[in-house]
Design brief:
The chain has 448 residues and is of the alpha/beta class. The chain contains ten helices and 18 strands. The chain binds flavin-adenine dinucleotide. Flavin-adenine dinucleotide binds next to α2, β2, β3 and β16.
Length: 448
């Protein structure tokens, strides 16, 4: 890749041109679409573009070349859409257990809970792009995109100093929310993939939420356990919490959960004898993550022709951390819009009333108005599972939303709803007070 040059003969003009070039290098490559960030959202968009085989030029930019197992994505739905061929395992039944209540086995039919390992998605995307006859893709690997700026019909950006432009940019680089929000929790987890025979009490039905884990002082925790087709099990310890969970704390909590599942002896993470089983089972994969759970708002649009996708664009559901289903929906919608020449704006990941309900729930958890494990258990026990899953996907009707709200402890949720509704006024009043106080404090500082 070479940076563009501006050639001029008159020396005065050359100085000017050189100065301008250092400010904004000449565009050397033009694209119809730029996919900036090729993680979950970028890969799914590329997959959707390849499946539609659009007659367009696409630039894909990511400093990380993604081929390996860096994510295990799970979600539910009637089908996996464009990602179907990458699905590793799927389940009709799930379990919710613990916290003094009898275990609930959920029958998801006609939906399925699905699992994709990232290498399978990355491979599928590569295959579909290679098979697409009209789509032309240039990958800018090991290089970061920078300086994304829209002007008229083009969006300019740089990659390792080289100037590129595109008609539409889809940007999934990590970005902070645009509104502050009040609750900033994280969903943090540590999971290990172990040989199935190392985990005796796992059974055939996956645990979606196993609240028998030790509960943290702030937030809630649960185990998550997926017996997979290849006779391995993904066992995960998850915390929804305002606190940062250290690696040591996560490891200790996961080991506790493994003991609860009947794992005898220590599970080693130093692979002395790969494939060995208990005592000393060796994880074949370690899954560690931290996902935002917040009522802050993320922008879906960062310019006339720049859209944000993925977590950076608000695709992560505030109350659960699930993101994958929304990323598929948005990728498919963007490709469909491009195919017919419409503005390819990704649709909102979730309806605004669901974002409001997420804010109420986060507030209830944050203010400790509800007991987290009890809240989720009641949700799954009192409501038809299809309704709960539609709700968690942002696809439920208003009537269903009301029914879901009614299954939560009413006084606590009412209080949280009132506090959430008052929050914008409270923050406006706080800002006004601060603005009134500001001139006097600046006078003080000037005098000082
Ligand atoms: C370990 C893990 C497991 C998860 N499991 C699930 C799950 O089971 N179900 C679910 O629904 N969600 C899950 N999530 C949440 C969510 O689905 C993932 O985080 C998903 O990868 C989000 O996609 P994204 O594109 O928004 O972010 P990412 O996948 O993080 O992609 C962002 C990309 O931007 C790139 N980038 C950064 N800076 C630049 C730059 N300057 N120029 C170009 N590119 C740049 C990064 O290298 C990265 O590849 C999981 C998250 C993690 C971390």
């Amino acid at each position: 890749m070479t940076a563009g040059m501006i050639g001029c003969s008159a020396s005065g003009r050359r100085d000017w041109a050189v100065a301008l070039a250092s400010y904004a290098p000449a565009v050397v490559q033009r694209y119809d679409v730029a996919v900036i960030g090729a993680g979950g959202a970028g890969q799914l968009l590329l997959l959707a573009l390849a499946c539609a085989d659009l007659d367009i030029r696409v630039a894909v930019v990511d400093p990380v070349t993604r081929t390996g197992h860096d994510r295990t994505w799970c979600w539910w739905g009637a089908g996996a859409g464009i990602a179907e061929a990458a699905v590793d395992s799927s389940w009709r039944h799930l379990r919710v257990a613990g916290g003094g209540s009898p275990e609930v086995v959920l029958d998801l039919d006609p939906l399925r809970y699905r699992l994709i390992r990232s290498p399978d998605l990355y491979r599928l995307v590569g295959e579909r792009v290679a098979a697409a006859r009209r789509l032309r893709v240039d990958r800018y690997e090991a290089a970061a995109a920078d300086d994304v700026r829209g002007a008229g019909e083009e969006v300019a950006f740089t990659v390792a100093g080289e100037a590129l432009s595109a008609s539409w940019v889809f940007d999934s680089r990590p970005a902070p929310p645009v509104s502050g929000g009040r609750v900033h929790w994280r969903q943090q987890f540590l999971g290990w993939v172990l040989p199935a025979q190392a985990v005796p009490d796992v059974g055939e039905v996956p645990f979606l939420m196993d609240f028998r884990t030790r509960q943290p002082t702030a937030g809630l925790s649960f185990g998550y356990c997926l017996p997979m087709r290849d006779r391995t099990v993904l066992v995960e310890y998850t915390e929804f919490s305002p606190e940062i969970m250290t690696d040591a704390a996560a490891t200790a909590a996961l080991l506790d959960y493994l003991r609860l599942l009947g794992v005898a002896g220590d599970v080693r993470i130093d692979a002395v004898a790969p494939g060995a089983v208990t005592p000393g089972a060796v994880p074949s994969h370690v899954e560690r993550g931290s996902i935002p759970m917040t009522d802050a708002r993320f922008a879906r649009r960062a310019g006339e022709r720049v859209f944000r996708l993925g977590t950076a664009g608000g695709a992560t559901r505030g109350s659960t951390g699930y993101t994958f289903a929304a990323m598929i929906r948005q990728a498919e919608a963007v490709a469909a819009a491009l195919a017919v020449g419409r503005v390819p704006a990704p649709p909102p990941a979730y309806p605004s009333r669901h974002r409001w309900m997420d804010a109420v729930m986060l507030r209830a958890l944050d203010d400790r108005l509800v007991d987290g494990p009890a809240f989720f258990r009641q949700l799954f026990r009192r409501q038809p599972i299809e309704r709960v899953l539609r709700f968690l996907d942002g696809a439920s009707t208003r009537g269903e939303d009301l029914a879901i709200m009614a299954s939560a402890p009413l006084p606590a949720m009412t209080r949280a709803a009132v506090l959430t509704a008052l929050a914008p006024w409270q923050s406006a009043a706080r800002n006004a007070r601060n603005a009134q106080a500001a001139p006097s404090s600046s006078r003080v500082s000037r005098r000082g």
